Every structure is written in structure tokens, then in C-alpha cells.
Amino acid sequence: MRYLAVVLLAASVCFGQADGGFKPAPSNVLDSQYPKVDGSSRVLVRFKAPDAAKVKLNFWSGPKIDMEKQPDGYWTATTPPMAPGLHYYTIILDGAEVSDPASTAYFGGGKWASAVEVPEAGADYYQIENVPHGQVRQVWYHSSVTGTWRDAFVYLPPGYDTSNAHYPVLYLQHGAGEDETGWTRQGKANFILDNLIASGNTKPMILVMADGYATRAGYVVPDLTGKPFGSPEMMQVMKERMGAFEDDMTQVLIPFIDKTFRTLPDRDHRAMAGLSMGGMQTFQVTFDHLDLFSYIGGFSGAMNIFEMGNKKMDLKTAYHGAMADPAAFAQRVHLLWLGVGTEEPAWIKTGLENMNAVLNEGKVKHVFYESPGTSHEWQTWRRDLKNFAPLLFQPADTQSK
Q1: Is residue 110 included in any domain, yes or no?
Q2: 330 lies in a domain?
Q3: pLDDT value, residue 221
Q4: What is the CA 3 to chain-centroid distance, rounded?
Q5: How much is the average pLDDT of 77-96?
Q6: Is the same domain home to 162 and 301?
Q7: Has residue 9 been placed in a domain?
Q8: Within 13 A of 171's CA, how many CA atoms are on the CB side?
Q9: How far from chain centre, in Å, is Cα 136?
Q10: Range of the domain at 389
Q11: What is the pTM of this model?
Q12: pLDDT digits (tens, 9 = 90+) for 45-71
């Protein structure tokens, strides 16, 4: 037995040396040794395809690398250093796009895909820690707007079941191509809230993560085959679905949540935020219903995609003139948040920078946050939530200008 232990130890040392300090990614499936990440945030992927002629590693927001075939039938590739966070990727196998069975699958880009978690040095705010934990529950409700059963995931803060307290609510929306599981599976929102609440600087709150796709009962979606993004036909469908989502949230979901859970059911204790498409939905829903919301957050989200381009937003008329009087707006809206990654695509980054400039010029009180070194990706939005949540439901003097 001693001999066997020595052999195994020697083998593990040699194996580790061969991989140059790479360690299995925390996003791998059970017992899978690959993908691996090293101390400089490079990712090593290994994929078995002994009969393939060509295999390519395809990170959606990152490198596209031809993989090299090894004598044992596996193909390998190592990326350059990558930004921290969760990165979607697929394998292009002789022209076919497939997932990596060694990695956990996540719903993103409108399909199930692989992803690898690149740890951020020194960042533990989204990790599971030895603190009191809340619970995430799936709830179902029948929508009179869509005529269907719909679901949402609800985070209840630590101590909810053992107290009689009532809590404020943050409605937190996913992006296009993702679903209501995204903020917990990819975003780690429940762990972020656990850690923030445990720190003492964030109010305990209920988090509601709803299905962001809605189609009104009786509406027939036209055939969009061959229609480019931004075409009039596609924009009309988007408007219809945005309106259906808005009505479902305000007419059905919010009353359901207030009836089902111990909430503080007033605008001063209700917030909404979202990433990308969810940010756009947030701006539409909240500005249309300032009687329901007083905290607003957009994480890489356009304020109005239907008026994008070079047209400058007119604060006197935009969103029913809600921001025409900056002082009155500041009294009514306790927090307006715009977040963006410094490495986001130009059309997103420039648009939000321009929006920040318009708000500054109009003296509209808001927070503009830039996530350093990240693009249109989950690490940007995790950082948004980490910095946004502590400002919610607090006295006005704790909210940054």
C-alpha cells in the first residue's frame, strides 16, 4: 500500500507539472479534470474526438482557436489570459457546433452551452461563504396577460421563515438569450446577496427573477425568417413582447408576489434592475410605472433601443417627461443606476457613455458605474449587483451621486 501511495503521488506530481499549474475549473461537471485554469487566467480545454478532422475552440466573447490533436484522440487548446468571470464557449467539430460534456451547461445565447469559470483573484463576494444563507424557490402563477402558466425564481433572505418581518423587493431581470435561471446559476445573485446582507451594509430583501419573455394571449408572431435584426418587422415584435412583459409584471406578477410573500408593497420598497435586454425592460417598466418603483438599475442595458442611433435623448420629453425637472425626479426616484463594462462592444459602451453625458448635462441625479476590464458578460453584471444592492432601501444620504 505504501508503494502504491508513492506511485500515485509521483504520478499526480508529474501530471500537475505537465499541465503547468493548471487546475480544474470550478464550473466543471463532477470529477472532470478539464477545462483547467492557471494562475494567469489561461484556460486549457481538452475534448475527445478521435475521428474528427478539424476541431475548433469557440469562446463567444473571446478567442477562437484551432485545437491540436493528441496521440490519444483528444484535442487540446490553451487560450491567452482571459478576464475573470463566466465565459460561454462551444466546440466546432467538423463544422458542427457542440457543447463540451466536461463543462456544466448553462442556458445562454438562446441555447444550452458550455461555460468555464475563470476565478477573480481576491474576489469572494459571489462565492458561497460561511454566512447565513437565503433560499431560492421556484414559483408558478397563471397570467391573465399571456393566458399561460409562468414561473419566477424568488430569493428569500436569511431568517425569512423564522421571522414575521416584511421585506422590500428587487425585481432582477436576465438578458436576451438567457432565462430566469441565469441570475442564480450564472450570476450567483443569491450568494452575492447572502454575503452583502451578512456584511451589514445591505438591507435584507426579497429578490424576484422572472421569465423575461412574454407573448400576449391571442397574438400571432409573424414569420421573421430572413428579417435582419433591427428590421421594422422585428422591432414591432419586440415592442409587442415588451408590452406583454410589462403588463404581466405590473398587473399579475407583482400582485402575486405581494400576496404570496411578506413584502413591503409600496414604491419606496420596490426596485427593478436588469442586464442587457433586462435593463431595457427595466427602464420601460419603471418609467411607465413610477407609482410602483423608486429604484431603477440598468446593467449594460439601453434606455430605449427603439430610439437608438445618433438621436440624442430629450430629457424634457423622454419617458413622459419624468426627468424634465431634475429636482422633482430626485425626490421621486431614489436611485437611477447605469452600469457598463469598460471592454463592452462600442455600440453598447458608447451609447451608455452618451446617456451618462446627457444625464450629467441635465443635472439628473444618477450613478454611472464602469466595470474595469470586462465586456458584455456575467462578471460585469455580478459587479453591478454587488455595488447596486447596498444602495437600495437606504436613507438618501447613503446613495452616491
Answers
A1: yes
A2: yes
A3: 86
A4: 50
A5: 96
A6: yes
A7: no
A8: 33
A9: 16
A10: 135-398
A11: 0.91
A12: 999 999 999 999 999 988 999 999 999
Q: Within the chain, how many helices (H) and strands (E) appear?
A: 10, 19
pLDDT confidence bin for 309, thresholds 50/70/90 = very low
155 close to 180: Cβ distance less than 8 angstroms: no
Q: Which long-range contacts (CB under 8 A, 24 or more apart) does 315-319 make?
A: 315/358, 315/359, 315/362, 315/364, 319/283, 319/287, 319/288
Nearest to 383 by CA among 123, 26, 37, 81: 123
Is 309 within the bounds of a domain? yes
Quote the distance between the C-alpha of residue 330 and its chain's center. 27
Compute the average pLDDT of residues 329-355: 94
> What is the domain count for the chain?
2
φ, ψ for residue 115 (rounded to 5)?
Answer: -155, 150
DSSP letter string over 82-131? --SEEEEEEEEETTEEE--TTB-EEEETTEEEEEEEEPPTT--TTS--SS
For 267-298, the DSSP string reads GGGEEEEEETHHHHHHHHHHHHTTTT-SEEEE
User: What pLDDT band is residue 304 in, cutting at 50, 70 and 90?
Assistant: low
**Distance between CA 303 and CA 320 in Å, rounded?**
13
Amino acid letter, 58: N
CATH code for the domain of 166: 3.40.50.1820
- Asked if 245 contacts 214 with a C-beta cutoff of 8 angstroms, the reply is yes
| 87-133 pLDDT tens trace | 999 999 999 999 999 999 999 999 999 999 999 999 999 999 999 99
Q: For 132-176, what is each residue's pLDDT tens digit?
A: 999 999 999 999 999 999 999 999 999 999 999 999 999 999 999
Report whether pLDDT(1) > 70: no
Which residue from 363, 260, 261, 347 is spatially nearest to 300, judged by alpha carbons?
Answer: 347
Contact 81, 109 (CB under 8 A): no
d(CA 138, CA 157): 15
**Which pLDDT band holds residue 305 (cuts at 50, 70, 90)?**
low
At 49, which CATH number?
2.60.40.10
Of 118, 153, 173, the residue that ends a domain is 118
